[in-house]
Every structure is written in C-alpha cells, then in structure tokens.
Amino acid sequence: MAGQNGASLQMDKDILDALKRIIRIGVVQSFDAATRKGRVKFEDKNGLKSSELKFVARPRHIAPNKQPPDQEDDLVKIACDHCPHQHEAYVMDWNPKPGAWVLCIMRPDGSGDGYVVGEV
Predict the structure, then answer these.
(1) How confident is the model at residue 72 (pLDDT cuts 50, 70, 90)?
(2) Apex CA 19: angle with CA 99 and CA 45, to 5°?
(3) In sequence order, what are the residues at sequence separation of 6 or more whose Cβ sits closer than 8 angstroms to the Cβ of residue 79?
(4) Cα(27)–Cα(120) distance, rounded to whole angstroms?
(5) How far is Cα 28 from Cα 101, in angstroms, rounded to an integer?
(6) Measured between alpha carbons, how far is 30 from 53 in angstroms, rounded to an integer?
(7) DSSP letter string over 58-69?
(8) Quick count: other Cβ atoms within 10 Å of Cβ 106?
C-alpha cells in the first residue's frame, strides 16, 4: 500500500511539473500587431525571455468615448434606447502593450513555442 501511495504522489508531482511548464504567466516585452507575434519575459524563470510567441486573436471590444492614440480603431455610432441621439464608441482589437501581464500556453516539449491567450 505504501508503494502505491508513493507512486501516486510522484505521478501527481509529475503532472504538476508538466502543467508548470505548459501554463505560464509573464510580462509582454514586445508585440507586433501586424503579425500578432511578440516576446514575453517569465519572471518566475529567472527573467527568461520567450522565443517569438503567437498572440491569440480575441473578439473586438467597445471603448465608449475613448480612442487610444496608438491603435487603429473603428468609430461607430450607437443608437440610444432611452434618448433621441447616438453615442460614439470605438471598436478595438486587443493589442497588448509592453509591460502587460499575460497568460501563456507553451508546448510541453520544451521547444519554446507557444501562444499568448490573454491579459491577466
């Protein structure tokens, strides 16, 4: 029985170690909006910088009355249900800035290839 518990604990440890290699949180170092690729620094890995990672495209979002100057946005007019006029809003892509904390999914084979799935 003791051997089975030890084996089970070792398997749990191996699974946790594998997940730590696959799921990582890091800081964006660079991002190219045209290619949706960039690099991420992993503080928990002694500041290790990733190879070029692919940033997953996310649905566009609406930012009412605000237009960030460094992004190309589409201005839209939104009809108001409770008043006779329209409101302006900007429909924007998610383009992370350097310094943003992001969630990454890495290939478990140690190749350094992976994806950035979003900000945390």
Answers:
(1) low
(2) 40
(3) 86
(4) 10
(5) 6
(6) 10
(7) ---EEEET---T
(8) 21
Q: Which residues contact 26 (CB under 8 A, 6 or more apart)?
A: 40, 41, 42, 43, 50, 101, 102, 104
In whole angstroms, give the CA distance from residue 15 to residue 80: 52
The residue type found at 81 is D
Predicted local confidence at residue 1, as pLDDT: 46
Q: How far apart are CA 118 and CA 104, in angstroms?
A: 8
- Number of other CB atoms surrounding residue 94 within 10 Å: 17
Q: How are strands ordered across the β-sheet holding 61-64?
A: 61-64, 86-92, 74-79
Q: Which residues pair with 116 in a beta bridge?
A: 55, 104
pTM, rounded to two decimals: 0.73
Beta bridge partners of 79: 86
Q: Which of 93, 94, 91, 92 is nearest to 78 (CA)?
A: 91
What span, in angstroms and rounded, lies between the C-alpha atoms of 37 and 23? 18
The most distant pair of C-alpha atoms in the chain lies apart, rounded to whole Å, by 75
